[in-house]
Specification:
Helices cover 16% and strands 19% of the residues. It is built from 8 helices and 15 strands. The strands form 2 sheets. It has an 8-stranded mixed β-sheet with strand order 1-15-3-4-5-6-7-8. Strand 11 and strand 12 form a beta hairpin. Helix 5 packs parallel to helix 7 and helix 7 packs across helix 8.
Length: 355
């Protein structure tokens, strides 16, 4: 399916806006300087030992873990799994995409094949059938690896196993540019990736005319017993030469960062937002948006369109497997938003924007 849109010329679709620390919150974003671009391949060795001060909610303690174990609320009930055959899975060929085209294909979970500005970018690529500590995929990967065009770049949101998958990344040529959160660069250099760019929140780099800005999220990081919050977490705003913007939220709860991202990056054309892995709320509300919160986040961002993700792929929580889709559609309608701007793709589905 192709959507043709004509973007009027606007002064606010250039470089993202960045307030300095002296600018009051109510100041116009147009008055703020843009962030400095860092070179591709930039690594730092002086990151803080911990990013725990970036948490927007405390991590669960022993009591919460004991309650979770007592209630056993980590998987759907049998009746919540019976709709697995109904999960939308419609793989098709990747649509043609030229340098002026913005095209995306959902491979499943938070993995997108995003083509913009002439580049093919993978987000949080997970092509494995199974990830650590989780049952096998509910739906196959929506795009066969051998059907991918040349991968020009990869963006990683954080180091959780369902977003940072070592077997998938091993398939990539080691010279592939990889954009990662602060503190995660060594994980890639140990695996011989040679073009790794580490960024802090509100920092940016540019590759062949496409700008990669790392932005905050309400989440956390952990991959082993000893590395809690040792690397950062966040989302990405990608901007092409014509000023079209895509926000990939990665993994996140709902909170104030969405409004700030929308203020600093006006004119987001498409927001890729998570809608699954939200139940029970007492356990997951700080780190995973539910469908209604995802729609609110879309509105806070000021985005034109929203593509839901982070559902229909892995069982990570206890909501019925089809519930995220039905709830996001209801929330979208109740918000009075245009139905055609909700890109609720099946796994393997694609949409295209052309000028």
């Amino acid at each position: 399916m192709t959507e043709r849109t004509a973007h009027p010329a606007r002064a606010d679709r250039g470089a993202p806006q960045q307030p300095d620390t002296a600018t009051p919150p109510a100041a116009s974003p147009a008055s703020a300087p843009a962030p400095v671009l860092h070179p591709v391949g930039r690594l730092r060795l002086d990151w803080p030992r911990s990013f725990a001060d970036r948490l927007t909610a405390p991590l669960p303690g022993v009591r919460a873990l004991a309650r979770l174990a007592r209630e056993g609320a980590v998987r759907p009930r049998p009746e919540g799994l019976r709709d697995i055959p109904l999960l939308p899975f419609e793989p098709g060929p990747l649509p043609p995409a030229g340098p002026d085209t913005l095209a995306l294909t959902w491979a499943g979970h938070a993995s997108w094949v995003l083509r913009m500005g002439g580049l093919t970018v993978l987000t949080d690529p997970v092509w494995s059938r199974r990830i650590f500590g989780t049952p096998a995929r509910l739906t196959p990967v929506g795009v066969r690896w051998e059907d991918l065009p040349r991968v020009d770049a990869v963006v990683i949101s954080h180091n959780h196993f369902d977003h940072l998958d070592a077997p998938t990344l091993k398939r990539l040529p080691r010279h592939t540019p990889v954009f990662v959160p602060a503190g995660l660069g060594r994980w890639f250099t140990r695996r011989r990736f040679s073009r790794v760019t580490e960024l802090d929140w509100w920092e940016a780099a540019e590759l062949d005319g496409v700008r990669f800005d790392f932005v905050p999220a309400h989440h956390w990081s952990k991959r082993t017993l000893l590395d809690t919050c040792r690397s950062l977490w966040g989302g990405w705003v990608l901007t092409d030469r014509s000023g079209r913007r895509v926000h990939f939220a990665g993994d996140t709860g709902y909170g104030h960062w969405f409004g700030e991202i929308g203020r600093r990056y006006p004119g987001i054309d498409l927001a890729l937002l998570p809608i699954g892995a939200y139940d029970p709320r007492w356990w997951l509300s700080d780190v995973h948006t539910d469908p209604e919160e995802a729609v609110r986040a879309h509105q806070d961002l000021g985005a034109r369109r929203m593509a839901p993700m982070h559902w229909a792929t892995f069982v990570l929580s206890s909501e019925p497997v089809l519930e995220p889709l039905t709830r996001v559609r209801t929330a979208w309608e109740q918000a009075g938003l245009r139905r055609e701007d909700l890109w609720d793709l099946p796994v393997g589905g694609s949409r295209v924007l052309v000028p």
